[in-house]
Amino acid sequence: MIKLKTTIITGFLGSGKTTLLNRILSEAEGTRIAVIVNEYGEVGIDGQLVLETQDDVVELNNGCICCTVREDLIAAIRGLLDSGRPIDRFIIETSGLADPAPVIQSFVLDEWLASRLELDAIVTVVDANHITQHLSQEEAAEQISFADVLLLNKTDLADDAHLDAIESDLRMRNPLARIHRTKSCDIALRHVMNVNAFDLKNILTIDPQILQEHDHEHDQSIGCVAIRAFDPVDPQALNGWLNRLVQDIGTDLLRMKGVLSFADEARRYVFHGVHMTLEGRPGKIWQPSERRKSDIVFIGRNLDETTLRAGFEGCLAERRALVS
Ligand SMILES: Nc1nc2c(ncn2[C@@H]2O[C@H](COP(=O)(O)OP(=O)(O)OP(=O)(O)O)[C@@H](O)[C@H]2O)c(=O)[nH]1
């Protein structure tokens, strides 16, 4: 049986994994790619941000792919293969807090999986602007150690001297990976697809225990708050609130993202926050058959859910109208 190649895209929160995935999907014409997106948080935002060109996108939102959803991952792959739709290869985007080791383990130890899929490469996206902060998290360091390909991304946000310093550090942490510098993950497909770079021998050199089951622990102070609303959001109120939030708790706020419904707007509004950086743009058009909704997710340390919910509620257009 021919095994389908699988690329694992990993990298810390907000480094550019979905940006890379969308680039691959838009450029890999003629290749039927099944995508599995794992997100840390119960509201699937990444699934909404993946390009619509794909038929087969499965979201795993119940936890981190390295812990609770490992069985779900295998079930998702089974489901896709059993669907009867033609599939040429797989791409798995892990959550930004995933340790890739247990996922690699599944590919080696699960007989059914190993007989059908083979790992092509682990591609790790590194945020040049924030990697120094991220490296205090064990997961970020592991993601770099296990990479076959490292994309040193967001080169527009760091100067050459800083990029050189980061690259030397990456090289020390992972002497074997190929390193490419990118802006918005602008990389030729041949560097990230069909590179045949995964080699268990290398992985065992990095972590001789990798094939043994071991509990994986996350930093318990990092949590996730996901909020959904069906009332439209007031853009000005949202803008003010997000900017205040970044000022107040920016250092603890690792990531925020949202797909929002603004009153009287034909398109969704997509926004991303990575630490103190905020960015927004129009997204896909709302279809008449769709129920408009807004999803927003915060990932960070010691988040206060009640305050975040109250803050977001204050940005809903109708509630503001009632209050004022
Ligand atoms: N300035 C700059 N921004 C970038 C670059 N690459 C990606 N971004 C932005 O960084 C933010 C996060 O990008 P994503 O692709 O969603 O990152 P991610 O790793 O999928 O995020 P999570 O899945 O939440 O961990 C978005 O606002 C992107 O537009 C880059 O090279 N330069």
From TrEMBL:
InterPro entries: CobW-likC_sf, CobW-like_C, CobW/HypB/UreG_nucleotide-bd, P-loop_NTPase, Zinc-reg_GTPase_activator. The keyword Chaperone applies. It comes from Arboricoccus pini. Belongs to the SIMIBI class G3E GTPase family. ZNG1 subfamily. SUPFAM superfamilies: Hypothetical protein YjiA, C-terminal domain, P-loop containing nucleoside triphosphate hydrolases. The keyword Heme does not apply. The lineage of its organism: Bacteria, Pseudomonadati, Pseudomonadota, Alphaproteobacteria, Geminicoccales. It catalyses: GTP + H2O = GDP + phosphate + H(+). It holds the Pfam family CobW_C. Residues 222-316 form the CobW C-terminal domain. This is GTPase, G3E family.
